[in-house]
Fold this protein.
Amino acid sequence: KQEVTQIPAALSVPEGENLVLNCSFTDSAIYNLQWFRQDPGKGLTSLLLIQSSQREQTSGRLNASLDKSSGRSTLYIAASQPGDSATYLCAVSTGTASKLTFGTGTRLQVTL
Amino acid sequence: NAGVTQTPKFRILKIGQSMTLQCTQDMNHNYMYWYRQDPGMGLKLIYYSVGAGITDKGEVPNGYNVSRSTTEDFPLRLELAAPSQTSVYFCASTLMGGTEAFFGQGTRLTVV
Protein backbone atom coordinates (compact mmCIF):
# COMPACT_ATOMS: atom_id res chain seq x y z
CA LYS A 1 0.00 0.00 0.00
CA GLN A 2 1.34 3.40 -0.99
CA GLU A 3 2.18 5.70 1.91
CA VAL A 4 3.16 9.34 1.61
CA THR A 5 5.04 11.22 4.34
CA GLN A 6 5.70 14.94 4.55
CA ILE A 7 8.36 16.48 6.72
CA PRO A 8 8.27 18.82 8.56
CA ALA A 9 4.64 18.91 9.73
CA ALA A 10 4.96 22.64 10.42
CA LEU A 11 7.46 25.32 9.54
CA SER A 12 7.80 28.99 10.42
CA VAL A 13 10.25 31.19 8.53
CA PRO A 14 10.87 34.94 8.24
CA GLU A 15 9.91 36.67 5.02
CA GLY A 16 12.52 36.46 2.29
CA GLU A 17 13.94 33.08 3.24
CA ASN A 18 14.26 30.24 0.77
CA LEU A 19 12.77 26.99 2.03
CA VAL A 20 12.38 23.33 1.15
CA LEU A 21 9.44 21.06 1.87
CA ASN A 22 9.96 17.31 1.71
CA CYS A 23 7.75 14.47 0.53
CA SER A 24 8.54 10.76 0.48
CA PHE A 25 6.56 7.80 -0.84
CA THR A 26 6.97 4.08 -0.35
CA ASP A 27 6.07 2.66 -3.78
CA SER A 28 8.05 4.07 -6.69
CA ALA A 29 5.53 2.81 -9.28
CA ILE A 30 3.81 6.18 -9.63
CA TYR A 31 2.35 7.95 -12.66
CA ASN A 32 2.97 11.44 -11.35
CA LEU A 33 3.33 13.56 -8.25
CA GLN A 34 1.45 16.76 -7.51
CA TRP A 35 2.01 19.54 -5.03
CA PHE A 36 -1.07 21.39 -3.79
CA ARG A 37 -1.67 24.42 -1.65
CA GLN A 38 -4.57 24.56 0.81
CA ASP A 39 -5.63 27.73 2.60
CA PRO A 40 -7.68 27.40 5.83
CA GLY A 41 -11.27 26.40 5.09
CA LYS A 42 -10.60 26.27 1.35
CA GLY A 43 -10.13 23.71 -1.36
CA LEU A 44 -6.87 22.49 -2.88
CA THR A 45 -5.07 24.46 -5.55
CA SER A 46 -2.67 22.59 -7.80
CA LEU A 47 0.81 24.13 -7.80
CA LEU A 48 2.96 21.74 -9.81
CA LEU A 49 2.53 18.39 -11.53
CA ILE A 50 5.59 16.24 -12.22
CA GLN A 51 5.20 13.21 -14.48
CA SER A 52 7.11 10.08 -13.50
CA SER A 53 9.50 10.57 -16.43
CA GLN A 54 10.39 14.12 -15.36
CA ARG A 55 12.96 15.30 -12.82
CA GLU A 56 11.59 18.74 -12.01
CA GLN A 57 9.01 21.39 -12.75
CA THR A 58 9.12 25.13 -12.16
CA SER A 59 6.45 27.78 -11.78
CA GLY A 60 7.52 31.25 -10.75
CA ARG A 61 9.20 31.06 -7.32
CA LEU A 62 8.32 27.37 -6.98
CA ASN A 63 10.47 24.45 -8.07
CA ALA A 64 9.55 20.82 -7.49
CA SER A 65 11.92 17.92 -8.00
CA LEU A 66 11.23 14.21 -8.24
CA ASP A 67 13.55 11.27 -7.59
CA LYS A 68 11.28 8.35 -8.31
CA SER A 69 13.81 5.63 -7.61
CA SER A 70 14.42 6.87 -4.07
CA GLY A 71 10.77 7.82 -3.48
CA ARG A 72 11.39 11.48 -2.78
CA SER A 73 10.20 14.89 -3.91
CA THR A 74 11.03 18.37 -2.72
CA LEU A 75 9.20 21.66 -3.15
CA TYR A 76 11.53 24.65 -3.12
CA ILE A 77 10.04 28.08 -2.45
CA ALA A 78 12.31 31.01 -3.20
CA ALA A 79 12.12 34.38 -1.45
CA SER A 80 9.15 33.45 0.71
CA GLN A 81 6.34 35.96 1.31
CA PRO A 82 3.59 36.18 3.95
CA GLY A 83 1.10 35.27 1.20
CA ASP A 84 2.82 31.88 0.92
CA SER A 85 1.46 30.95 4.35
CA ALA A 86 -0.73 27.86 3.83
CA THR A 87 -0.65 24.09 4.09
CA TYR A 88 1.25 22.34 1.30
CA LEU A 89 0.14 18.87 0.33
CA CYS A 90 2.00 16.28 -1.70
CA ALA A 91 0.09 13.55 -3.55
CA VAL A 92 1.18 10.67 -5.77
CA SER A 93 -0.90 9.14 -8.52
CA THR A 94 -0.94 5.40 -9.06
CA GLY A 95 -2.83 3.32 -11.57
CA THR A 96 -4.53 4.37 -14.77
CA ALA A 97 -7.42 6.01 -12.90
CA SER A 98 -5.08 8.63 -11.38
CA LYS A 99 -6.17 7.92 -7.84
CA LEU A 100 -4.24 10.17 -5.49
CA THR A 101 -2.57 9.18 -2.21
CA PHE A 102 -1.92 12.22 -0.05
CA GLY A 103 0.55 13.12 2.63
CA THR A 104 -0.68 14.92 5.75
CA GLY A 105 0.84 18.21 4.66
CA THR A 106 3.32 20.83 5.86
CA ARG A 107 1.80 23.91 7.49
CA LEU A 108 3.92 26.89 6.49
CA GLN A 109 3.89 30.28 8.18
CA VAL A 110 5.93 33.13 6.73
CA THR A 111 6.35 35.95 9.22
CA LEU A 112 7.07 39.63 8.60
CA ASN B 1 -14.94 28.85 -15.94
CA ALA B 2 -16.46 27.63 -12.69
CA GLY B 3 -14.25 24.51 -12.54
CA VAL B 4 -15.47 22.05 -9.88
CA THR B 5 -18.48 23.23 -7.89
CA GLN B 6 -19.67 21.58 -4.68
CA THR B 7 -22.89 22.20 -2.79
CA PRO B 8 -23.64 22.72 0.01
CA LYS B 9 -20.61 24.32 1.64
CA PHE B 10 -21.73 23.45 5.16
CA ARG B 11 -24.28 21.02 6.58
CA ILE B 12 -25.24 19.64 9.96
CA LEU B 13 -26.98 16.26 9.97
CA LYS B 14 -28.53 14.25 12.74
CA ILE B 15 -27.51 10.61 13.20
CA GLY B 16 -29.47 8.40 10.82
CA GLN B 17 -30.41 11.16 8.37
CA SER B 18 -29.54 10.99 4.70
CA MET B 19 -28.18 13.56 2.31
CA THR B 20 -26.55 14.01 -1.07
CA LEU B 21 -23.44 16.06 -1.63
CA GLN B 22 -23.51 17.57 -5.09
CA CYS B 23 -20.51 17.94 -7.39
CA THR B 24 -20.46 19.27 -10.92
CA GLN B 25 -17.62 20.21 -13.26
CA ASP B 26 -17.71 22.22 -16.46
CA MET B 27 -14.30 21.23 -17.86
CA ASN B 28 -15.52 18.13 -19.72
CA HIS B 29 -13.28 15.97 -17.55
CA ASN B 30 -13.68 12.23 -17.79
CA TYR B 31 -12.48 11.26 -14.31
CA MET B 32 -14.08 12.38 -11.07
CA TYR B 33 -13.34 11.61 -7.41
CA TRP B 34 -14.62 12.03 -3.90
CA TYR B 35 -12.16 12.43 -1.02
CA ARG B 36 -12.66 13.09 2.66
CA GLN B 37 -10.25 15.04 4.88
CA ASP B 38 -10.16 14.51 8.62
CA PRO B 39 -8.14 16.77 10.97
CA GLY B 40 -4.45 15.86 10.95
CA MET B 41 -4.96 13.23 8.27
CA GLY B 42 -4.31 13.19 4.57
CA LEU B 43 -7.20 13.09 2.13
CA LYS B 44 -8.67 9.61 1.66
CA LEU B 45 -10.37 8.42 -1.53
CA ILE B 46 -14.03 7.39 -1.10
CA TYR B 47 -15.21 6.67 -4.66
CA TYR B 48 -14.12 7.49 -8.16
CA SER B 49 -15.44 7.36 -11.71
CA VAL B 50 -13.58 7.13 -15.02
CA GLY B 51 -16.63 8.00 -17.12
CA ALA B 52 -20.40 8.22 -17.19
CA GLY B 53 -21.95 5.00 -15.94
CA ILE B 54 -18.70 3.74 -14.38
CA THR B 55 -17.93 4.00 -10.66
CA ASP B 56 -15.58 2.18 -8.32
CA LYS B 57 -14.70 2.07 -4.63
CA GLY B 58 -11.75 3.86 -3.16
CA GLU B 59 -10.04 3.35 0.18
CA VAL B 60 -12.95 4.29 2.49
CA PRO B 61 -16.28 3.58 0.69
CA ASN B 62 -18.36 2.19 3.57
CA GLY B 63 -21.45 4.28 4.32
CA TYR B 64 -21.43 6.05 0.95
CA ASN B 65 -22.83 5.60 -2.52
CA VAL B 66 -22.25 7.38 -5.82
CA SER B 67 -23.65 7.56 -9.31
CA ARG B 68 -22.37 9.05 -12.57
CA SER B 69 -25.20 9.47 -15.03
CA THR B 70 -23.57 12.40 -16.86
CA THR B 71 -20.01 13.53 -17.51
CA GLU B 72 -20.59 16.70 -15.50
CA ASP B 73 -22.14 15.40 -12.27
CA PHE B 74 -20.89 13.04 -9.57
CA PRO B 75 -23.12 13.14 -6.46
CA LEU B 76 -22.13 11.42 -3.20
CA ARG B 77 -24.92 9.90 -1.13
CA LEU B 78 -24.86 9.28 2.63
CA GLU B 79 -27.72 6.95 3.54
CA LEU B 80 -27.53 6.68 7.33
CA ALA B 81 -25.31 9.41 8.72
CA ALA B 82 -22.97 8.46 11.56
CA PRO B 83 -20.67 10.66 13.69
CA SER B 84 -17.67 8.97 12.01
CA GLN B 85 -18.74 10.68 8.77
CA THR B 86 -18.08 14.12 10.23
CA SER B 87 -15.43 15.42 7.85
CA VAL B 88 -14.66 17.78 5.02
CA TYR B 89 -15.54 16.29 1.65
CA PHE B 90 -13.78 17.25 -1.56
CA CYS B 91 -14.78 16.49 -5.11
CA ALA B 92 -12.08 16.50 -7.79
CA SER B 93 -11.76 15.90 -11.51
CA THR B 94 -9.07 15.20 -14.09
CA LEU B 95 -9.26 15.16 -17.88
CA MET B 96 -7.75 11.68 -18.05
CA GLY B 97 -5.16 9.56 -16.29
CA GLY B 98 -1.91 11.36 -15.52
CA THR B 99 -3.25 14.89 -15.79
CA GLU B 100 -3.68 17.69 -13.27
CA ALA B 101 -6.40 17.30 -10.66
CA PHE B 102 -8.82 20.15 -9.94
CA PHE B 103 -10.63 20.33 -6.62
CA GLY B 104 -13.84 21.90 -5.42
CA GLN B 105 -14.02 24.16 -2.38
CA GLY B 106 -15.25 21.37 -0.12
CA THR B 107 -18.33 20.53 1.94
CA ARG B 108 -17.93 20.64 5.71
CA LEU B 109 -20.29 18.04 7.20
CA THR B 110 -21.03 17.58 10.88
CA VAL B 111 -23.09 14.62 12.12
CA VAL B 112 -24.55 15.06 15.62
About this structure: The interface with chain B takes residues 4, 31-32, 34, 36, 41-46, 49, 51, 89, 91, 93, 95-105 of chain A (CB under 8 Å).
